[in-house]
Amino acid sequence: MNELDKLQAALRDTTPAPNADAKAEALRLAAENFAHLQESAPDARPISKAPQKGSIWKGITSMFNRANLRPALYATSCLVVAGAIFTNYQPIQDGLPTLQDAEPITSAEVAQAPEPAVLAERAEGDAVANRLPQQAEEEAPQVPSSTSKAANAAPLGALNSQPQAKPAPRKKRAMNQSLDLESSGIAQLESSGIVAPLSHQDDAIVAPQPNDDQFASAPENAVKVTAQDPVSTFSIDVDTASYAYVRSTLLNGGQLRPDAVRVEEMVNYFTYDYAAPAKNADTPFTTQISVTQTPWNPDTQLVQIGIQGEKPAVENRPPLNLVFLIDTSGSMQNANKLPLLKQSLSLMLGELHPTDQVAIVTYAGSAGTVLEPTNASETATILAALDALNAGGSTAGGAGLRAAYALADQMRADGEISRVLLATDGDFNVGINNPDDMKSFIEKNRNSGTYLSVLGFGRGNYRDDMMQTLAQNGNGTAAYIDALAEAQKTLVDQLAGALFPIANDVKIQVEFNPSVVAEYRLIGYETRALNREDFNNDKVDAGEIGAGHQVTALYEITPVGSPAIRNDPLRYAADAAPSDATEIGSFKLRYKSPGATESQLITTPITPFETPTDAGFAAAIAGFGQLLKGSDYTKDYSFDDAITLATQTKGADPFGYRAEAIRLMKLAKLRK
Amino acid sequence: METSDENLVTLAQAGDAAAFSALVSRHYDLIHRIGYRILGSQVEAQDMAQDLCLSLATKIKNFRAESKFTTWLYRVAINAARDRLRKRSTRRKISENWGDYETNSRAADAKNRAQLDWLNQAMKTLPDDLRETVALVLGEELTHDATANALNISPGTVSWRMSEVKKHLRALAQSEELIR
C-alpha cells in the first residue's frame, strides 16, 4: 500500500461521524437564523448588494463612501443595519459568536471583550489528556465568561425558550458601534481593526503557523588569531535545556531553528569518563584536558577541557528548602506542560529526605501560596497540593518570584540550602516581561543566598531567552523537560547536582601560545562569553557547579603552519618570538566556594600530550550540534560522519543517553 | 429525483427557508469532515460547522452560479477552518495543530487506535496547505482540477503538493523505524 492510500484509508476509517445532537442543533440554528434574515430582509437590503466576496460592512463602507449621502440618512440607516445584524445573531445571544467569519458584529464583540474569549478558547481547546471533551465542556463555565461552548453545554432548552434573552446590551453595543462609525469615519474603523476582518474573506491567504519559541543566542564564535587575541574567557554552563529542546523538535517533526541549538549545552548533556576528585582534595573538582584530532578538519585539533565536580555523600547532605514556583497560566494546560510537571515533581519527592521542606507557590493572574512549608515526609499532603493545581489565567511571573523568594527566606535556617525551583513554559507576560528587568530583579535576590533553578516545559511559546536569563543570573541551572524520562534524569538521577552547589561563579580563561597555536575557536558558549578583565573581577557573575556536575568545553585550534589557517599573517606585525615551548596554552579557572566572596585560582598548562579522556563522543556531539546550527567551520562533515564517530565512541552508555543521541542524528539526517 | 444543489441555492437565495434547510442538512457532514480533517478535533469541527451553518444564511447570497455549489462550499469551509487555525495560533500559540488529545481519547476502539495515532502523527507533520489539499484530494476524493478550483490554485500546484505529501509521509515512515 503506498503512503497516500494509507493516509486515505486512515482518514476514511477514523474521521468520526458528526454528533447527531450537535448537527441537529446547528441545523436548527441555521434555519432560525435564515428565518430572521428573511423577516428583516427589507431593512437588510444593503447586505445582498454587497460584493460577492464582501460582507455586511463592505456594504456599509461603500454606502458611506458615497459623497452625496445626506447625514440624516447616514445616521438612520446605520441604526437599521445594526438592528438587522443584531437580529441575525439572536439565537446565539449567550455565547460570544466566533471570530472567524469576519462578520463585523463578531469582531466588535470580541474587541470589547477579548480576554474572556481567550480564556474560553483555552479552556475548550486545550483539553488535557485523558479527559473527555464533555468533561472539559462542563468545566468551561468556571471560566469567567460564557462562550458558545459554554452555551452549548447549558441546556439547549434555555436557548429555545428564551430566544430574546438579554438582547439589550448587545443591541446597545452594536448601535454604539454604528454611531462611532458615523462620527469618526471609516478610516478610523479600519485602523481600529473593526473593518479589517474583511481581508479574512474567502480568498484569504493562510498565515504560516508561527513558532513563537524565543531563544537566547548569539552569533557563532569566530576564529581568533592567537597573536592578536590570545585570551579566551567564558563562564561555565551546565545547562542542558538546548539538547532536550532539539530532541523534542526532532522527534516531533518540527523545523529546528539554528538559534535553538547551543552546542555547549548539547555537549554538556552527556557525562564523560572524567576522574573524580580524590577524597579531601584541595579543590572540589578535577580538571582534565585532552588534545585530539578534529573530526571535521584534518588540519586542526580539538582541545577538550573537562571538569568533574565532587560528589558529596548524599546521606550527609544538609537539609534542603525547596520552593516550587509553578506557572499555572492558561498556556500550561497541555499534556506536555502542567500534567508532565506534576508527574516530574512527584518523581522528585521520592528523592528528598524527611528533613527537607517543600513549599509550593503558583502564579497565574495573581500569585498565591498553595502549600505552606511542609516536611518532605508528608508526601500525601504535598501530592494532594500538586494534584489540585489547575491551569488558567495569564502569568504574573514577577509577583510569583517575589512570593517564592519571600517564602524561601522564611524557611531558611543555618546550614540549610534554599532553592527556588521555577517550572514554567517561560511565558512571563504580566509584570516583568523584559529579560533585562527580570535580570536585575533576580540579581538583587541572588545575594540573599537562595538559588534559582528553572525547568522549562512545552513548546509554542517557550521563552528560552527568559529561562536562560533567570537561571544564569539566579545561580541556577536551566533544564528543559520534554518527557518523563528527562524529568527522571534531571530531578532524580542528577538531583544532587541540580540542588547542591559546590562551586560558584566558575570562570575559565585560556591563554593560547601564539608560537604553537595560530588560531583558535571556542565551540559554543556564545551566550556565556566574558570580557578578559572579568576573569579577575569577583563581582562578575558566572556559572555554578553542582555536586557531581561535569562541565565540558571544546576549543578547535589550528597549529602554526597548518594549511587550515584562515587569516593571513599581518605584514607589519612583530614576528612572534621563536620559542621551543610546546605548551599549547595555559588554562586558568576561578571559582568561589559556596558562601565565599573571594575566588580561588587554579592554573594548569595545556600540553599536546594530554591523554584522551572519552574525547570522541564529545567531538561527535559538537559536530552534530554545529551541523544543526549550520556552522561554517564543519566543512564537509556530515551527519553520517557524526553517526559513525558517535557509534564508535559510545562506550558502555548505561542509561542509553548516547544511543538516543545517535538516533537523533539519524533523524536529523532524514529531515535534512 | 433529488433537487440539485444549484436549484436549492436559487430557491434559498429567493428566501425559501425549506430549500435552505435542505441544503444545509445535506452538506453539514461535508463541512464537519473538512473541519475535522483540517483542525484535527471533533469538538472544534463541531463548533466550526455550527458557526458556518449560521453564517451560511447570509453567505449563501454571495454564491454565484459560476461554480458548483460544493466547490464554493469547500472553499468557504476551508476558509472557516483556516480562520480557526489562525485564531488558535494567535490566541493559544500552539504550534501543534492537528489532533488534540481529546480526539485520541474519544475516538477509536482498539482496532482503530493505531491507525488514528499514525494519522495524528502524519497530519501533524504536514504544513497547513498540504493538509488542506489532503483533506480534499484524499478525504473528499476530488480530482486535482476540482481541488485546484476549491483552493483557488492551479492544478499543477495540487499535484506538486501531493508529491510533497508523499515525501513527508516517507520521512515519517523512516523516522518511525528509527524511533522504534
Coarse shape of chain B: elongated
Radius of gyration of chain B (CA) equals 18 Å
Query: How is the CATH topology of the largest domain in chain A named?
Result: Immunoglobulin-like
H and E string of chain B:
HHHHHHHHH
- Major sheet attributes of chain A: 6 strands, mixed
Strand content of chain A: 15-25%
Instruction: Please compute the radius of gyration of chain A using only Cα atoms.
Output: 31 Å
Oligomer classification: heterodimer
3D architecture notes:
Chain A has 672 residues and is an alpha+beta fold. Chain A has 3 domains: 3-114, no CATH class; 224-238 and 249-312 and 502-567 and 579-652, Immunoglobulin-like, CATH 2.60.40; 316-494, Rossmann fold. Chain A has 23 helices and 16 strands. In chain A, a hairpin with a 7-residue loop joins strand 3 (285-293) and strand 4. In chain A, helix 14 packs antiparallel against helix 15 (379-387), helix 17 (435-446) runs parallel beside helix 18 (464-473) and helix 21 packs parallel to helix 23 (657-671). The longest helix of chain A is centred in the N-terminal third of the chain and has 25 residues, at 167-191. Chain A is globular and about 95 Å long. Chain B is mainly alpha-helical and 180 residues long. Chain B is 78% helix and 0% strand. Chain B has 9 helices and no strands. In chain B, helix 8 (144-151) crosses helix 9. The longest helix of chain B has 25 residues, at 155-179. Chain B is elongated, with a radius of gyration of 18 Å. Mean pLDDT of chain B is 81; it is low at 91-97 and 100-108. Chains A and B meet through helix 1, helix 2, helix 7, helix 8 and helix 23 of A and helix 2, helix 3, helix 4, helix 5 and helix 6 of B.
Keyword list:
heterodimer; A: 672 residues; alpha+beta; Immunoglobulin-like; Rossmann fold; 3 domains; six-stranded mixed sheet; 23 helices; globular; B: 180 residues; mainly alpha; 78% helix
